[in-house]
Amino acid sequence: MNLRLVLVGSASAASFFLHALDGIAKVGLLLALAALVAVCLRRASAAQRHLVWVCALVGAILLPFGYRILPAWKVLPSWMRWEEAPRLLLQKPAQVLAAEPSKQPAEILNVEELLPADDVPEAGFSTAIEPKTPASVASAEPKIFRVPVSDLIGVWFVGAAVLAVPLGISSMRLRRKKSKAHRLDSGPLFEICETLKADLCIRRRVTILLGDAAQMPMVWGIFRPVVLLPEKAQTWPDERIRAVLLHELSHLRRNDPLALWIAHLALALHWFNPLAWWAVRQLRIEQENACDDAVLRHGVRSSDYAAQMLELGADFSIDKIPTMALGMARSSGLDNRICGLLDPTKNRRAASRLLMLGFATLAVFVGGPLAMLRAGEPEVVVRGRILDRNGLVLAESSGDQMRQYPHGKAAAHQIGWVSPRFIGVSGAEKNFDQSLAAGNDVRLTLDLKAQQIVETAIQNAGVERGAVVVLDCRNGEVLASTSVPEIEPQQFVPQIEPGYWKKLSKDPNQPLLDQTTAKFVQGATYSLVAAVAAARTGQGEHAVFDCTGSLSVDGAKINCWIKNSYGNSHGPLGLRAGIANACNCYRSQLAMMMGQKELDIAAEVLGLEKISSQAGDENPISQRSLALVGIGQVFTRASPQQLAVLAAAIGNGGKVWVPRVALDEPPQLRADLVKLGWNQRDLATIRLGMEDCVNASGGTGQSARSDLVKISGKTGTGLIMDRGRAIAHAWFIGYAPAENPRYAVAVMAQGSGAVGRVRGPIARAILEALCLDAPESR
């Protein structure tokens, strides 16, 4: 059976529940055995069958306590052991976590009025998170169902309380009846009662009460028994009085009020068990049948007694008898009682003391070993570890299930954290929750050393808000991924302080947001998508456009950054120079030449959002919007992770990988552009354009140039309105070494205009450190 039930709760609560579960299973078996015995005794007397049900219900109360009192007797067959059934895994929850903070959307800038100096602004900003591609859990992994133990115990208490309410109401009704009735201490009726008490060997004092005229005869009370009769009982014939009193006093002689309380106590404990309800019903039926038999054994003719029963049913209300009272006649089962009275072959023997002793002894010999039987102890599974690619521990649980994050903030958003019920709510803790909950370790593609290089680089640059993703160009493995500001996962264990949570949720830099998967408009990096679209159609070598410093499209004027900064123009540009120089005029004309359909095809193959999915009602978009798409102003959202995939695809010669985060899963190739027939010469031209962007004069990415390793890349800058203020976010995507790409990187930094000057140095520091530390460089 490929499922597991995980009980989430404290050790004491889980222990209580599992002990109760063991008792429940055994009580179910005991009641089923009692039902089988009762069926076998169907030709025995009602008193004997009643004794069976009394023993079973007493056992239902006592048997669960045998788990702790009696020694263990581990002789159960394997199929009855808990560990062979769907497995019960105990977990102690960390007391953590409130809901995710609200995301405040930023406004869209009018980018035609705000143009940054070194690149085209990005219009629009979205903090909507696109989840990383989760590695699927292997089909062999069990399905995990988490059930809070406290909830189960609470449901049981509610059920028991609901069953206790009618008992309380019944006691109140009986007390009210007793207060309204008057006591009978003398007279013919009293004398008959005393005579019958002597005949039945009842030595206890029995209170005789007379109620209203419509009162059904009944009896109740364990220590102070009461027989309640209607007022007109004093005028009944002696035969009828004798039959009624014999029936009611027989209940007392047999201690039926005590048996009834035992039955309802057992029902309150096992209200969820249908066998318990059936057992209580059978006990009440056999109580009445046994008392009827006692009446007939004392010389009352069966036909006369049946007639009196029918008269009682006609004269009195039989539907308003309190639960804990034993009425002379009830509506349910009255027909069967009459038939039983008239059956001359029915066994009407009483249960002798010797028989009672025998049944009690048998019950002990059956219930005792049953209580001693032990199901296998539940398997306590510690939540699995999260490891980096080299086996270093990123997250683990100690013996008491406390989650530990030994490297603090390192890769916090990628590792994630767990909820109070020990359910992963973010990062790898969420994506691999099923496997981790089953106790399996998960190895990520993250390299802790590479992660530390990335985090050091972005911290040294002073970036307060941003993200960096590093991929392996050869297979799409996510080697490092950081989101700034970072969080401290250990702060959530065992219980997050309300003040700290409030600080996190209200921080305008949104530390709980994983910005590696949040989407921002692409800016100038979108020119690579348009260039790849040109490679698909083979138009790259014909994509030559003239930059005059500005471009007018449908009344919209788009200035090139070189005109804004220096008052110049680029002149005629081909694909390579257009990419290297990030010319606004070139990019707009290239996008308009390709058209929305081709741009959408390229974006979809590269794993990016299509224009049509972002444009809303404006489909197809106008030429003016298409020009703005070309410079990355509208309908061009992408996450740092997606743009790292784009950079890797260009660097590795056209292989578009699905980001891979689980080392034990095979790489997934989204597309191979060369095998799809896309123009290899144009793809090579795009790579040269990215190389020139960093290494050639006039390139916008020269701040990433390195003397240690040749880097290729592409820059992009945008402006967004966040809470009424303009904030720049700058991109650098690229790969290295340029001649044989191994690492692809996407850097996104937000803040003042200065971020444009730190994106290149961040990428350079990361790629230098990674390439020089690579095994082939040693």
Automatic annotation (TrEMBL):
<feature type="transmembrane region" description="Helical">
    <location>
        <begin position="51"/>
        <end position="70"/>
    </location>
</feature>
<protein>
    <recommendedName>
        <fullName>Peptidase M56 domain-containing protein</fullName>
    </recommendedName>
</protein>
<feature type="transmembrane region" description="Helical">
    <location>
        <begin position="206"/>
        <end position="223"/>
    </location>
</feature>
<keyword id="KW-0812">Transmembrane</keyword>
<feature type="transmembrane region" description="Helical">
    <location>
        <begin position="258"/>
        <end position="280"/>
    </location>
</feature>
<feature type="transmembrane region" description="Helical">
    <location>
        <begin position="23"/>
        <end position="44"/>
    </location>
</feature>
<dbReference type="InterPro" id="IPR036138">
    <property type="entry name" value="PBP_dimer_sf"/>
</dbReference>
<comment type="similarity">
    <text>Belongs to the peptidase M56 family.</text>
</comment>
<dbReference type="Pfam" id="PF05569">
    <property type="entry name" value="Peptidase_M56"/>
</dbReference>
<dbReference type="InterPro" id="IPR052173">
    <property type="entry name" value="Beta-lactam_resp_regulator"/>
</dbReference>
<keyword id="KW-0472">Membrane</keyword>
<dbReference type="InterPro" id="IPR012338">
    <property type="entry name" value="Beta-lactam/transpept-like"/>
</dbReference>
<feature type="transmembrane region" description="Helical">
    <location>
        <begin position="153"/>
        <end position="174"/>
    </location>
</feature>
<feature type="domain" description="Penicillin-binding protein transpeptidase">
    <location>
        <begin position="466"/>
        <end position="768"/>
    </location>
</feature>
<keyword id="KW-1133">Transmembrane helix</keyword>
<feature type="domain" description="Peptidase M56">
    <location>
        <begin position="29"/>
        <end position="338"/>
    </location>
</feature>
<dbReference type="Pfam" id="PF00905">
    <property type="entry name" value="Transpeptidase"/>
</dbReference>
<feature type="transmembrane region" description="Helical">
    <location>
        <begin position="354"/>
        <end position="373"/>
    </location>
</feature>
<dbReference type="InterPro" id="IPR008756">
    <property type="entry name" value="Peptidase_M56"/>
</dbReference>
<dbReference type="GO" id="GO:0008658">
    <property type="term" value="F:penicillin binding"/>
</dbReference>
<dbReference type="InterPro" id="IPR001460">
    <property type="entry name" value="PCN-bd_Tpept"/>
</dbReference>
